[in-house]
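hi! just following up on the protien thing from before. the input was this:
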Amino acid sequence: MSLMPNLNYGNLKDSYLFFGISKKVEAYRAAHPDKPIYRLGIGDVSRPLCDCAIRAMHEAVEDQAKAGTFHGYTPECGLPEFRQAVAGYYARRGIRLDAEEIFVSSGASDELGDILDLFDASSAALVTQPAYPAYVDASIIAGRKVNFLNAGPENDFLPLPGADTAAELIYLCSPNNPTGAVYSLEQLQTWVDWANERGAVILFDAAYEAFVEGELPHSIFETKGAESCAIEICSFSKTAGFTGTRLGYTVIPKALEREGMNLNAMWVRNRTTKTNGISYILQKGGIAVFTDEGLRQIQENIQFYKQNARVIMEALDGAGVRYWGGKNAPYVWMACPKGMKSWDFFDLLLNEVQVVGTPGEGFGASGEGFFRLSSFGSAEDTKIAADRIRSLVLGI
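and the predicted 3d structure came back as:
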């Protein structure tokens, strides 16, 4: 008998969204090597890491050069001081967490797939669309049934559960990728109450929480009862620019239990089985991010990206285009002009004005007819790209 592969891979779409975009861009560049390309597509940051993190990581490297301060394996669930630093960050918003409820990770993308180990594959997942494609793909790879709850202009891309909503595992992302929409506290409370009533578990992707302004919630744990139905997955990638450095954390309350099993204890067992911990050097950088000076410095970068978002929004205002997001997220989610399909608009932008964005159809069927623009580029390129988009749309 030959080895049986995971046949669930056969149920995936032919190519991952961003791989498809890169192939189109490569083909255009090869055909037009003299044309500059302005990228408002993939959500990768462009600003250097803050000084606090850099200094801390340099010091950690020096620690590794001396016998007296050398560190080998780190604790699988995270350095105690890292877990305390994250708990302190939550405490600033009035959320009390035990440090042992916080787990270090190599980033939100990795964790969103790994966390599925906690749940039997027979538990159906609910994905609110448009959505980050990895939610769906990771669930399919695990052999899990995926249900969809579509969002659109009618609910400002913030869907809520209804009488016919069915799933045991719910993916929520706020601020949302790709739409930039942010749930209010009351809306999140609706989801938490719904999950608790049905014994479901919410996987809350808070990768973009640092972009939130005003009274909108940063964390699902700002609601009542979330400790018994939610896991929060966070990232330093957008908070502190660690896209190439890879660091994040996950919050699993000790109160979260299902079928007599404690999910916090299960994750301890999982991490001590499947990992040897995250780099000492990276965790020291993460600890520095959550100091007073570190938080001030990362806000400077976040405000830089938010200014880019304002430039994009002003251009769309000038072109009379409807959009969402931008204010509390690094993404602007625009309606394609003249009812165009999203991949057709992608091709038009690339070929006519050399601007790259992300077709909404790649985020699910309800994303068709919409387009995501990222504010993570340089100020100069963002301004040029925004002006080109405005001119193109006005000329259609």
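The longest strand covers residues 230-235.
The longest helix spans residues 292-319.
cheers
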